[in-house]
Design goal:
single chain, mainly beta, Porin, eight-stranded antiparallel barrel, 9 strands, Outer membrane beta-barrel protein
Length: 198
């Protein structure tokens, strides 16, 4: 009987940190993300915005201190979104902008608002690959470039069973002026993710 009690105490001592980790937002995490992607070029034309799907993955690390959570994260996504502007520099011309891969590195800060629920705000640096094509009646010019910008957003994360979680977030990114053209590229995204915390 004494051995059984000691074994139970030893097992609970080893299990306690694991149970504590399940209730905490501290740790390394990895997730897949997919969502709605809307890109605008700032021209004010209806054709200057376009919708598509963003998809990819992210990794991050969070630390919980009391009810506050602080974290860093990195994300790599692709997109099906493109946009165009007509008669931009001359009558009859067309500029097409295709959004490619997007790299993001930033941080987040949030608060635990209930059992296994986190509300957070995020912000950081984003670098998007943009492929442009400018076409007139006589010439076609294609240019691919990387654009630097910033991203801000907010979201909610909810723990599932084990170490799994789901999240939803809105984020806004702005990449400034696309070189050589009078357009200001920005994007609005609503993303959902599912991940695991290690």
């Amino acid at each position: 009987m004494r051995k059984l009690v000691l074994a139970a105490l030893a097992a609970s001592a080893f299990a306690a940190p694991a149970f504590a980790q399940d209730d905490s937002f501290t740790g390394l995490r990895a997730e897949g993300v997919v969502g709605y992607d809307r890109v605008g070029d700032g021209t004010g034309q209806d054709a200057g915005t376009s919708d598509g799907v963003s998809y990819g993955g992210a990794i991050g690390y969070d630390v919980q201190a009391g009810g506050a959570v602080f974290g860093v994260e990195g994300e790599l996504t692709g997109s099906t979104t493109d946009t165009r502007a007509d008669s931009l520099l001359a009558a009859g011309d067309r500029l097409t902008v295709d959004m490619g891969r997007d790299l993001y590195v930033g941080g987040r800060i949030g608060g635990v608002v209930g059992s296994g629920t986190l509300l957070y705000a995020k912000g950081g640096y984003t670098n998007a690959r943009v492929d442009t094509e400018y076409r007139t009646a006589t010439t076609t010019t294609r240019v691919g470039e990387n654009m630097d910008g910033f991203r801000v957003g907010a979201g909610i994360e909810k723990k599932l069973g084990g170490n799994m979680y789901v999240k939803g977030e809105y984020r806004y990114s702005n990449y400034g002026d696309l070189g050589g053209y009078d357009i200001d590229v920005d994007r609005h995204q609503v993303a959902a993710g599912i991940g695991i915390r290690f």
